[in-house]
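User: Hey, my collaborator sent me this sequence without any context and asked if I could get a structure. I don't really work with proteins. Can you help?
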Amino acid sequence: MPSLAAMKTTKLQDADCANKDVYEMILGKFTGLATNLTRDKDARIAENLTTYTEKASAYTAWMDSESSYREAEERKSTAKAAVEYAQGEFDKYRTAVEAGEASYASTIAPMAAEKADLEMQQDMIAEIVKLITGMAQPTATKATRAANLAQIEAKVSELSTDKKMPKAMQQQALKIKKMTTALEEVSAATIANAMEILNEMADEITARVTAIDAATSEADKNLAADKAKKLKWQEDVVNLSNTADEEEAAANTADLARQQLSGINKVKEAAYVDQADTYESDISQYTTEIAGVSQIVTVIQTLVDSC
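Assistant: No problem. I've predicted the 3D structure and written it out in structure-token form, which is a compact way to encode the shape of the chain:
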């Protein structure tokens, strides 16, 4: 029986048909070997493709996680910046409210007491005007005039000594006080002079009360606005702090995920590189072996077919 090496150059007429069963046995073995080599080559190709695909997929997942982490970090930074801004605004309006309340206590509150005094003085002036008018009535008796004058003197005396009354008005009250004696005559000129001074005093009180009301209204409005803004920013600080906490937790989760995926990427990359080092030589060897075995199979098949 010819050797296997010789089979590659065996001619058809050299076939020893007495050994056909041996040829068939050898054919079966080499055919199986060719099948196994082809299967192993395909498996090696599949291994290379699988590790490459896994490496590429792991790398993509890692890069996506890095992007997600950076976005989460940006959201966290933005949320923290929002909290800092809101805290600054809250502190600003808290200070404004404290200053406003202090100013209110030192300026507006005393004005309320001043206004009450002014209104009392205004009522007193109105009473004096009423008394003088009563004295000027043609029907007024001497007793009525005397009684009215006594009341006028008492009220004017009270006004002129009221330390809460503005100095200019005190001086006008003193003028009225000096005129009380002249009022006994109930002359038109005396009454006109007295009424003019009283009207000026009433006008000054009205102007001052109006100024107090305006200042109080403005202070109330400003203080209310500052308090509303303080409350608004206080609520924002709480809500934005909660959001910042959530964003920080999300960033931490994203950081953990990217670290895990980075580790997986390194493993997959190492696996690919490890097998890729010999891939070309492995495929070349498989190709050579398959070609050699296929050639032998062809020769043996020819021998079997010739018998």
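In plain terms: Confidence is low (pLDDT under 50) at residues 1-13. You can pass these tokens on to your collaborator as they are.
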